Request: fold
Amino acid sequence: MFHGSMVALATPMRADGSLDDESLSQLVEFHIEKGTDAIVAVGTTGESATLDMKEHCAVIRRVVDQVKGRIPVIAGTGANSTKEAVELTEGAMTAGVDACLLVTPYYNKPSQEGLFQHHKRVADSVPIPQILYNVPGRTACDMLPQTVERLAQVSNIVGIKEATGDIGRAREIISRCGDSMDVYSGDDLTTLQLIEVGAKGAISVTANVAPAAMHEMCRLALNGDIAAARAINERLIALHQALFLESNPIPVKWALSTMGLIPDGIRLPLTTLAAEHHEALRQALKQADLL
Reply:
């Protein structure tokens, strides 16, 4: 349903942590101009964990209003409370998004049956296309391929963002689910490899700062021109790595600020990128022809 380079959009904030609506609108226009295939608003890269419900819904509405139907908008609506996930997903549907992205419940550490029932409840409650998001390195909760296969039978669960970086895992999900569910990379470093085994694109952190390159790399790979896609990806490898020198989205917000695209605001308990990492990230941006 959704293909290509989908940016996991950072949420612009001022130095005091307040939301910067003007920068958000400009950032949306930057992505449309550079060819980003879809925008994911208020996913985990968008600091969903520290936005309250009102702010969360307001950012989604602003992105939808700014995009004006030019590209798909996917809203991050996951939560570790099933009731809250339903409410966020309902709000996003009302705002006019094209789909929702739901991270596995973090901290609770539900069983595989709990994961199944959680996502099925949200899907049954809100009739909008939904994409699962598995990132056990952040959630301490791993959705196994068998559970993904069960959820693929729910009609409005249409995809999964698989962020383990495990190519074998992605291959197994694709084999189990076939055409009933699309797989997207949630790990920029292995995106090209995932597309080679059948993924439909990426929900990307790197696309925040290199949208044109990520769009073209995904486009070429999806069209079977792996050699040309690999040439682009080679320029981006250092950036893929440098954007995780500290917890996401700390490095990517510093990079966006350095590029003059957003202010340098971020919310506690996250803090701005440590000075010791500035030069490595700056060099990665230069290698990718972004500075």
Q: What stands out?
A: The chain has one domain: 4-224. DSSP finds twelve helices and eight strands in the chain.
